[in-house]
Amino acid sequence: MMPTLLKTFLFFQLFACIYTNYNAFFALMVTNPTVVQQVNQIETNLTKTNAQFVKFVHNTSYLHIRLNTIELNETTLPLIQNFLKDLPKAICNVSYSVPALFEGTAVKANTTLHGKVNAMSSTVISSVHQKIYSLLNGTGILSIDEHVIFHPKMDIVELDDRKHEDLLQIMFNRTGDFKLNTGDFIKEIVLFNATPSGAFHDVIGRAPLAPCSNFTVFKPELLSNRVPIFTNIDDLDFKK
User: Fold this and answer.
1) Whole-prediction pTM value?
2) Environment class of residue 30 by beta-carbon count within 10 Å: exposed (0-12), middle (13-18) or buried (19+)?
3) pLDDT value of position 172
């Protein structure tokens, strides 16, 4: 019999190998200038307090809320391209302008400082996430969640695996330095790919969201003798 400790170790090794195949993810990119300004101030306040955090702050040009993680390779590339083209119409009943309204910041596991979205935003974003997941199921594109339970959040500082007791302590001692009380209404879903450095900051696809009214809808009785013609959507910015 294989010792339990060894089996556990091998399981996590296998899981790590499998998970590394999931090298791209859908996200809501937060670009509202007021949000960016507040996050910049948070990062400045934190790094002034403790300079060790400088290398862990997120680039505010790529603030985002992660949605579904997928496997991207030569086989799935054309599938994902078609998926992005079809996504605006497929998701229009869920949301065509996704609210990302923040109500402060929080620390998770003493390693990640993130922006918290309010309850309404969390509900809508979770619905978008679930819709994408159900749509992916029918495409052959493998999808996985980073966490068992999806909780939308916007990472601001992400530390390494070492213990950083200072982060939690600074948060509690200087609450005024971590205000995030603004938001954004996001009108597109982007697809990020991993760059050679391992950072997910390469936008390789965009799906601009639109109301259902932007798509031509025919009455059921006309479907038998007319070919549906949908309103054109601008070609997606998809790098080859």
Assistant:
1) 0.77
2) buried
3) 64
